[in-house]
Design goal:
It is found in: Cytoplasm. Pathway: Metabolic intermediate biosynthesis; chorismate biosynthesis; chorismate from D-erythrose 4-phosphate and phosphoenolpyruvate: step 2/7. The protein is an alpha/beta fold. It folds into 2 domains: about 170 residues, Rossmann fold; about 180 residues, Dehydroquinate synthase-like, alpha domain, CATH 1.20.1090. It is built from 13 helices and 11 strands. The strands form 3 sheets. A 7-stranded mixed sheet has the order 1-2-9-6-5-3-4, with helices on both faces. The protein binds nicotinamide-adenine-dinucleotide (NAD), the ligand O=C(O)C(=O)C[C@@H](O)[C@H](O)[C@H](O)COP(=O)(O)O and zinc ion.
């Protein structure tokens, strides 16, 4: 049976535009949608241990049955493997399997696999094709789309990387079934982000349909994933390399990346750190007179009601500020923050004094 995607979202770019195909229980159809890749070119499936155990062999089988030559490389998984040591190991694997400039990488996994495999594709032999097959909610709604690839340094998140777009995002919502609760909530943090920065209706929907969303109701999830992909495609289509608008997708990340780095990438998942960061971004907006206290409280309540953390624990405010100076958005010593200016609207501010930061970090 040839199953069709439930939804299709196009990322319109001058060069390298691509489709996000969202389907359900349709992994078997993957090879059909790889028809733009020559059977003679080698494929490399990159995954992590958990996802490989879940679906790796199945994907290899599907592709081999369709005549592709495919090898696999399995990462240990977790934020701890998003680094240059793992990249270097991956290049060895790619060379060892004889990947050439016509080869294609398939990133089967969450945001970690997607970012690492995407960066490997961006840099191996100066760039080969790759495809995203997202398996976490976070990857479905955010990381598989838009072409941000890269790795962390001990000093900070994603400090080495490239903008490099995939040729296709092949999304199967069925992967959400096996996702642990913590990882599901992590993805919801980025979903909430879209509601705050861009889409008031999405925000209201999340407020009004908490139980359905939490219980992973399928039709509700299809709508959420498609809407988030549409928003991201719209933003990336207007500003692929983050010269302006795209920075809005970083709401909560200036704080969040600092929380992640300061806890050695072990204290928070990415989405959890972003959740806390969004609360602080909203507080910053309040002290700058950009939103009302009640709107900021509404944002914090939504985050809390979805079971996400609301505090950065016992980190020091001074260390957080020092870490934020290393954020990629910091230019000429000015840290940039994305702040909500209402529900569904946001802007960038970059003239925040340290005293103001200390004031809100101590709230
Ligand atoms: N490139 C971007 O635009 C972008 C956007 C957002 C986040 N990110 C990055 O994404 C990373 C976080 O991604 P993540 O939250 O997906 O984490 P992840 O990739 O580590 O996945 C979370 C955990 O879930 C497991 N898993 C994955 N799919 C599963 C499934 N279907 N069933 C059961 N277990 C499964 C993984 O093995 C892992 O243990 C961070 O490094 C973050 O910086 C990138
Ligand atoms: O795609 C984007 O643009 C984003 O900012 C999405 C974020 O959710 C994501 O975490 C991204 O990797 C952060 O970007 P960075 O440039 O701050 O590393
Ligand atoms: Zn993020």
């Amino acid at each position: 049976m040839n199953k069709q995607p439930l939804r299709k979202v196009r990322v319109n770019l001058e060069e390298h535009g691509y489709d996000i195909l969202i389907g359900e229980k349709w992994l078997e159809q993957l090879a059909i949608y790889l028809n733009f890749i020559s059977n003679s070119s080698k494929l490399m499936l990159i995954s992590d241990r958990n996802v490989y155990a879940l679906a790796g062999e199945k994907v290899l089988h599907i592709l081999r049955e369709a005549g592709f030559q495919v090898h696999s490389a399995v990462l240990p998984g977790g934020e701890g493997c998003k680094n240059l040591t793992v990249m270097s190991w991956l290049y060895e694997q790619m060379l060892g399997f004889g990947l050439d400039r016509k080869s294609t990488v398939l990133a089967l996994g969450g945001g970690i696999v997607g970012d690492v495999a995407g960066f490997a594709a961006a840099t191996y032999m100066r760039g080969i094709g790759y495809i995203q097959i997202p398996t976490t909610l976070l990857a479905l709604v955010d990381s598989s789309v838009g072409g941000k690839t890269g790795v962390n340094l001990p000093q900070g998140k994603n400090l080495v990387g490239a903008f490099y777009q995939p040729g296709l995002v092949f999304a199967d919502l069925n992967f959400i079934n096996s996702l642990p609760e913590k990882e599901y909530l992590t993805g919801l943090a980025e979903v909430i982000k879209y509601g705050i920065i861009w889409d008031k209706e999405l925000f209201n929907y999340l407020e009004e349909n908490r139980n359905k969303v939490i219980s992973r109701d399928r039709s509700c999830l299809t709508g959420i994933v498609a809407r988030c992909c549409e928003i991201k495609a719209e933003i990336v289509g207007q500003d692929e390399k983050e010269s302006g608008l795209r920075a809005l997708l970083n709401l909560g990340h200036t704080f969040g990346h600092a929380f992640e780095a300061l806890t050695g990438y072990k204290g928070f998942t990415h989405g959890e750190a972003v959740a806390v960061g969004m609360i602080y971004a909203a507080r910053l907006a309040v002290v700058r007179g950009l939103i009302s206290r009640s709107q900021s409280d509404r944002i914090a309540s939504l985050i809390e009601n979805y079971g996400l953390p609301v505090s950065y624990g016992d980190l020091s405010a001074g260390d957080i500020i020092d870490s934020m100076y290393r954020d990629k958005k910091t230019v000429a010593g000015k840290i940039k923050f994305i702040v909500p200016t209402g529900i569904g609207v946001s802007e960038v501010v970059s003239d925040v004094a340290e005293e103001q930061l200390l004031q809100i970090l101590k709230l």
